[in-house]
Specification:
heterodimer, A: 609 residues, mainly alpha, MetI-like fold, 2 domains, 3-stranded mixed β-sheet, 70% helix, B: 357 residues, 5-stranded mixed barrel, 20 strands, 24% helix, 36% strand, elongated, binds adenosine-5'-triphosphate, binds magnesium ion
């Protein structure tokens, strides 16, 4: 009886359209997310045909990967009037975790401070600062770290020139490089993630909660610690876990620093190790130890992500007690604080936009070769975007891959969002989970999984990365950015009353007609918004682009091409062309933001859990 | 136009029984209303008829066709939603014409039919407006037109007037009634407003906690409620508790030391001697002079009076039991005076006692 009822319900719910949507989504998620990762995990636990932890023991037991004693590097050491801040080498795995922890802590500290200031104070120029604070979100993969590396060169670096040679503010020249340099570059580009998440929660806290506490005599730091901070923890946790994951899987900073300074310490990170193993892949395949490395990363990020998601959904009480007056608490800071706020925000904005400013300078002047400061403007690098056939090809490649990825993302994202929001089929919450989890899957882990799964099972076909990585790149972009599209569409669907669809069904339209004529027109702005966002992210995607994209030269996407240039191995030479490509990426991104803001009247969705 | 029949229809949401073994028949061309308190399952029952919800068990027939498992888009019912559910991205014309487009009806014919139905609901001239540019009443008419234009077998309304202001509500309910009489479409209507239900319906089904308690014409339901729930849900009145004394053609109820005779309301003889019973006395059935029909005579002290225009409400204390009486408007009764009043035995409703929540 129960079985028959479930079956007849399923038959009703799974009409042709829902069935197609579900099957399509499940198929793509299985083939391009679950199966490759699953195979990779499985391989990592197999040695000589038997289940074994050998590869993990290998890693943990090898001082190259885990070493509690320092194996080199310099941290706050002064030699010949130069203070070296490189970080200490504790082995590749520990380095990665340490860098990620340091970056996360820095980002939380800066992000929370900025969010508090922006949410609770009003002052002149706040609107301008609000925009400037987001500059680090503009994608300048590889080149950002290159710029920082260049600025902190002990001799010839602009920072040392300015603060040591000219202003005499520093007792020694400082040399920031290696792991610490990477952490710095990552902090500067990721703090807005924490800031935006915390800001959003702060804006959602019922002001009366804080007022009540103040009324009871709590103020200043005490108020912050006892009420404000606990209430904004969900936003903080969400931002923090994303920063942590991004830092772990980041390839841009290590390669950028290597390009600028060639310090071997910058290689001692898991992401770089996996990246370089793709170079061997062409020759003979990837070692299971690399799988194990990728699996460790995958497990850490997925567990962290799921835990935070759980925590955030438990703690969403901050929004519950709405009622009464609803205007956020903003006030003018007293003069003394005002100065501190300006000083802090302006130096932060300046420091954090260094990479973007530097990128523009590299692209438009001769700064790459002129030494400390640029000496003349030139448009030749920007021109080369159109004239240099290699460069143009990379651009066209990326445009095509991202364009194709958008279609898949919109199709799958809309399908998943619709099924999850509207249909009552078993396992739909699972579908929801798998549509969100790609946020937590490190791109390089996915790349390793793809390589393993498709080169083994689809040898010689178009899905074999060694034959042609294009399809895999497209699907990698689609799957990695799927959460943004499907979330955006889901949000749109939640705005639509179900009765609008029921009215159409009732009048005689089939579900598919209803979807096309009623639902789609109403969520089109969400689709376009989500699509634009995903397009931008796909264009500037680094991890799979620089690994899978490396497998065939004529297929390389922009970001891989930039990495080659920055690394100094591309034939075009000057890093300036890489910078010019970054300028192109930034322009696309700004254009997309303007479109979403002005035309679609929606705030650009940002990275959150 | 069809006859709609529900056979043992049951629908459960977790622990909640939204439709509890409902069996009833809505006649061809009838205006049939589900009336009941909030959450009793009216909407669910209506949605089952529309095919937007499917029963856990039981069957649904349109004439002789079993439509229990037919998806809503194949049922040809026209539903008017509580919030109208007009598509914001379509003009009035497109909203109404949608069902015709789906049915692949030629452009010219569609245009003609839309015009006709818009005239019918007094909306001619507003074809190009968008839903947001319409008043509540106009939106309501568009929703009605959209349901009517496809010439549905059954017209379904889910509290269609609840979003309108009081005046408009009165006007629209007359319009809906008129239209239904003219078009003779089988119509099923859901409301929790008893007056609306009485005015508009041919027959009413009273629903509580998923169960249909009684089906009948407004007069039947009002005058012959078959359960205490129905008696108290429909119409006001005072309630006296007592013990059935003599049961026969009439029932005599002992209340303290006085006795009241009345007619058992339910068809089945459920009351036995010695049972606890409830006596329901409608305020408008009392008179102050002895009527010709056999009647009960009661005495009590006037506690307060209130002139409400068309009548005077009088509250009477009868041995610490309160009765409300509608007296003629021009009457003058001083508070504190003892009065005698009468209610015919025919109008004295006697029902078995039950828990009323
Ligand atoms: N989709 C659903 N899931 C779970 N419970 C539901 C669902 N739809 C209705 N119910 C429950 O079933 C019961 C009947 O609901 P229904 O909407 O039919 O009541 P109603 O009589 O129309 O009430 P109202 O007058 O408030 O509209 C309610 O207790 C309701 O909470
Ligand atoms: Mg209802």
């Amino acid at each position: 009886m129960e079985v028959r009822k479930t079956w007849s319900r399923l038959r009703r719910e799974l009409d042709l359209m829902t069935g197609t949507q579900t099957l399509l989504s499940v198929f793509i998620l299985i083939l391009f997310l679950i199966a490759p990762l699953f195979l990779m995990v499985e391989e990592a636990f197999v040695y000589k045909g038997e289940a074994s932890l050998k590869w993990f023991f290998d890693i943990v037991g090898d001082a190259e990967f885990v070493s509690f004693e320092s194996r080199g590097g310099r941290l706050f050491e002064v030699h010949r009037n130069i203070m070296y801040i490189w970080g200490l080498d504790h082995g590749i795995l520990l380095n990665t975790l340490l860098v990620a922890v340091v970056v996360t802590v820095f980002c939380c500290f800066i992000g929370v401070s900025v969010a508090l200031i922006m949410a609770r104070y009003k002052f002149r120029g706040k609107e301008a600062l609000r925009i400037l604070l987001l500059v680090p979100l503009l994608a300048t993969p590889f080149v950002n770290a290159y710029v920082i590396g260049k600025l902190f060169k002990p001799t010839g670096g602009l920072v040392n020139f300015l603060f040591f040679d000219v202003l005499h503010l520093l007792p020694w020249r400082i040399d920031i490089d290696g792991l610490f340099g990477i952490a710095l570059a990552q902090t500067l580009s990721y703090y807005p993630i924490v800031y935006l998440n915390v800001f959003a929660t702060l804006m959602n806290i019922d002001p009366s909660l804080e007022e009540q506490a103040e009324n009871l005599g709590s103020k200043g730091f005490r108020l912050f610690r006892s009420v404000t901070l606990p209430l904004s923890l969900p936003g903080l946790a969400a931002g923090a876990i994303i920063v942590f994951i991004f830092s772990m899987e980041d390839l841009g900073a290590p390669i950028g620093f290597l390009g600028a300074r060639a310090n071997p310490l910058s290689r001692k990170l898991v992401s770089y190790q996996i990246y370089s193993s793709f170079a061997e892949a062409l020759a003979g395949g990837i070692s299971p130890r690399t799988y194990a490395l990728a699996v460790i990363m995958l497990i850490i990020s997925v567990i962290g992500f799921v835990a935070v998601k759980q925590y955030v959904s438990l703690k969403s009480y901050a929004m519950l007690s709405r009622g009464g007056r609803w205007s956020p608490r903003v006030r003018k800071p007293p003069l003394k604080y005002g100065c501190v706020i300006y000083l802090f925000l302006i130096s932060l904005v300046f420091a954090a936009s260094m990479p973007q400013i530097g990128t523009v300078l590299l692209a438009t002047t001769n700064w790459a070769t002129s030494g400390t400061l640029p000496t003349e403007f030139t448009t030749k690098y920007l021109n080369s975007l159109a004239t240099n056939p290699d460069v143009t090809r990379a651009i066209i490649n990326s445009l095509m891959y991202s364009g194709a990825a958008i279609m898949i993302m919109v199709l799958v994202g809309a399908s998943i969002a619709y099924v999850v929001a509207r249909r009552d089929i078993p396992g739909r919450s699972l579908l929801d989970v798998f549509a969100t989890i790609p946020v937590a899957v490190p791109g390089i882990a996915l790349a390793v999984g793809y390589f393993l799964f498709f080169s083994r099972n689809f040898r010689g076909t178009l899905l074999d990365p060694l034959t042609d990585p294009v399809l895999l790149l497209i699907f990698a972009y689609s799957v990695r950015r799927l959460p943004f599209t499907s979330r955006a569409i889901f949000a749109g669907l939640q705005q639509i009353d179900v009765s609008l669809e029921e009215a159409s069904l009732n009048i005689g339209a089939k579900r598919s007609t209803t979807f096309l004529r009623i639902v789609l027109p109403m969520i089109v702005s969400n689709i376009v918004g989500g699509g634009i966002l995903s397009f931008v992210y796909s264009m500037s995607e680094v991890s799979t682009s620089s690994t899978l994209g490396a497998l065939r030269e004529d297929r390389m996407p922009i970001t891989f091409f930039i990495s080659q240039i920055v690394y100094g191995v591309a034939a075009v030479g000057a890093v300036s062309i890489g910078a010019a490509l970054c300028v192109l990426l930034m322009s696309i991104q700004i254009l997309a933001m303007v479109i979403s803001n002005l035309i679609l009247k929606q705030r650009v969705a940002f990275l959150g859990v | 136009m069809v006859e709609v029949a529900l056979k043992e229809v049951t629908k459960r949401f977790g622990e909640v029984l939204a439709a509890d073994n409902i069996t009833l028949k809505v006649n061809n061309g009838e205006f049939f209303t589900f009336l009941g308190p909030s959450g009793c399952g009216k909407t669910t029952t209506l949605r089952i008829i529309a095919g937007l919800e499917f029963p856990d068990s039981g069957k649904l027939f349109f004439d002789d066709d079993d439509v229990t498992n037919l998806p809503t888009y194949k049922r040809n019912t026209g539903m008017v939603f509580q919030n109208y559910a007009l598509w914001p991205h379509m003009s009035v014309f497109d909203n109404v014409a949608y069902g015709l487009k789906i049915r692949k009806i030629s452009k010219e014919e569609a245009k003609e039919r839309v015009q006709k139905v818009l005239n019918l609901v007094n909306l001619a001239g507003l074809e190009n407006r968008y839903p947001t540019q319409l008043s509540g009443g106009q939106q309501q008419r568009v929703a009605l037109a959209r349901a009517l234009v496809i010439e549905p077998k059954v017209l379904l309304f889910d509290e269609p007037l609840s979003n309108l202001d009081a005046k408009l509500r009165l006007r629209m309910r007359e319009e809906i009634k008129d239209l239904q009489k003219r078009l003779k479409i089988t119509t099923i209507y859901v409301t929790h407003d008893q007056e609306e239900a009485m005015v508009i319906s041919d027959r009413i089904a009273i629903q509580n906690k998923g169960k249909i308690l009684q089906v009948g014409t407004p007069t039947e339901i009002y005058n012959r409620p078959q359960s205490l729930f129905v008696a108290t849900f429909i119409g006001g009145g005072s309630l006296l508790e007592g013990i059935a004394d003599k049961v026969g053609e009439k029932i005599q109820v002992k209340i303290n030391n006085s006795a009241i005779q009345g007619t058992p309301s339910s068809d089945e003889q459920r009351i036995k001697e010695g049972d606890k019973v409830a006596v329901v006395l409608r305020p408008e059935n009392f008179v102050l002079e002895k009527p010709r029909s056999t009647s009960n005579q009661l005495r009590g002290i006037v506690e307060w009076t209130a002139f409400v225009g068309s009548r005077t409400d009088v509250r009477i204390n009868m041995n610490e039991r309160r009765l409300l009486i509608h007296a003629p408007p021009d009457i003058m009764i001083p508070v504190g005076k003892e009065v005698t009043f009468y209610i015919s035995q025919e109008d004295t409703i006697i029902l078995p006692m039950e828990e009323v929540s």
